[in-house]
Amino acid sequence: MKSPRPRVKKQRLSKSLSGKKILLIVSGSIAAYKTGDLIHDLKTQGASVTCVMTECAKHFVTPLVLRALSGHKVYEDFFSSDTPYDVLHTSLAEEHDVILAAPASANFLARLAAGMANDLASCIVLATRKPVLLAPAMNDQMYRHMLTQANLKKLKGAGYQIIEPIEGHLVCGKEAVGHISDSQTVIGKIRQVL
């Protein structure tokens, strides 16, 4: 007689972001390779994720990968002829619950701090009245530079939430601060602002 199979208890996944729409801006940082895990974890929590890429981000991850993972069109620039919106940047800014830039490169942070609107991603941030979360990722010397720190202070003063980078392995070979925060920390911050 066969012994009965042990019952495996099904673990219920928390859907704490169920029905929430996240606009994920991916900027030009090597940490962009972690974006796939972040999208997966956000979707596991019940969120819908739409991605916007800066031009530099395409050197680290492709629009095709982000589209496959998110299940949505990836927006790269203003001038796409196949967008469902009349005014792309304001529509994307208004229809999402949270704007998350992860990774947020030093360049992207500097452009935001200067109030620049020279690409789709920066225009969306300027056009939104929804919570904006920024997850910096860069070399430790870039992160600690007085201008980057001044930009972060200015962005905090404007009401943007900063998800501080952590100490970790950097592409230059050092173990130092500048490594993007893990997905669970990012998701926890999203929960706080919603």
How much of the polypeptide forms β-strand, as a percent range? Answer: 15-25%
CATH class category: Alpha Beta
Number of strands: 7
Q: What does the overall shape look like?
A: globular
The whole-angstrom Rg is 18 Å
Given as residue ranges, the uncertain stretches (5+ residues, pLDDT < 50) are 8-13
Q: How many discrete structural domains? A: 1
Q: Architecture, according to CATH?
A: 3-Layer(aba) Sandwich
Mean pLDDT: 90
Structure overview:
- The chain is an alpha/beta fold and 194 residues long.
- The chain has helices spanning 35-44, 63-70, 88-95, 106-113, 120-127, 140-144, 146-157, 183-193, and strands spanning 21-26, 48-53, 98-104, 132-136, 161-162, 166-169, 175-179.
- It has a single domain (21-193), classed as Rossmann fold, CATH 3.40.50.
- The protein is built from 8 helices and 7 strands; from the N terminus they run βαβααβααβααβββα.
- Strands 2-1-3-4-5 form a 5-stranded parallel beta sheet, sandwiched between helices. A two-stranded antiparallel ribbon has the order 6-7.
Quick structural summary:
The chain is of the alpha/beta class. The protein has a single domain (21-193), classed as Flavin prenyltransferase-like (Rossmann fold).
Q: How do the helices and strands line up, and which of them pair or pack?
A:
Blueprint: E1 21-26, H1 35-44, E2 48-53, H2 63-70, H3 88-95, E3 98-104, H4 106-113, H5 120-127, E4 132-136, H6 140-144, H7 146-157, E5 161-162, E6 166-169, E7 175-179, H8 183-193
Parallel strand pairs: 1-2, 1-3, 3-4, 4-5
Antiparallel strand pairs: 6-7
Helix pairs in contact: 1-2, 1-8, 3-5, 4-7
